[in-house]
Amino acid sequence: MWCRNHVRWDEEWKKVIWSDESRYTLFQSDGRTRVWRLPKERYDVECVILTVKHGGGGVMVWGCFTWDSLGPLVRVDGVIDSWKYIDILNTHLLPFMEKLEDDKDEDNVYELLQFILAN
User: Fold this and answer.
1) What is the CATH number of the domain that holds 26?
2) How high is the pLDDT of residue 104?
3) How distant is the alpha carbon of residue 5 from its chain centre?
4) DSSP code for 54
5) Does the pLDDT at position 63 exceed 90?
6) By three-state DSSP, how is residue 60 classified?
7) Closest C-alpha to 28, from 46, 60, 55
8) Is residue 9 part of a domain?
9) In this structure, is residue 27 part of a structural domain?
10) Does residue 12 lie within any of the structural domains?
11) Is the pLDDT score of 115 beyond 70?
């Protein structure tokens, strides 16, 4: 439904800020890995997945971008709960939006995000 409502957008996309967070692991996913093999293939090199003790580490990042601007890419320690997400928005998204406001002279961007965060 959302896609259908915005399929005809053209210039409107230039006013959108996209953001997301992702976790990147160095050696494998944080979940279980399954291997399908026949009993005789138990120790076959092609059927074994090498592992690293304690997962080998990873990093969580948050970032944002617009039609023509890259926002900050922020390393996030631990998990992102609602309080940490609000802190990220206040610490990184608001300054990015202020810079866009200065660069593009859009007066209502900052006020709109303040309204969203307050409610």
Assistant:
1) 3.30.420.10
2) 64
3) 24
4) G
5) yes
6) strand
7) 55
8) no
9) yes
10) no
11) no
Number of domains in the chain: 1
Q: What is the DSSP letter of 16?
A: -
Q: 108 is in which domain, residue-wise?
A: 17-118
DSSP string of 18-44? EEEEEEEESSS-SS-------GGGTT-
Residue 79's alpha-carbon distances to 21, 56, 59, 113, in angstroms, are: 10, 17, 10, 23
1 domain-assigned: no
Residue owning tokens 């915005």: 6
What percent of the chain has pLDDT above 90? 32
Give phi and psi for 34, each to the nearest 5.
-110, 140
Predicted model pTM: 0.66
Residue identified by tokens 């998990």 is 79
Q: In the numeric block, which tokens belong to residue 102?
A: 């200065």
Q: What is the distance between the alpha carbons of residues 91 and 19, in angstroms, rounded to a whole number?
A: 14
Written as six digits, the tokens of 67 are 């039609």
Buried b (16+ CB within 10 A) or exposed e, 72-83: eeeebeeeeeee
Instruction: Decide: 7 and 48 in contact? Cβ < 8 Å.
Output: no
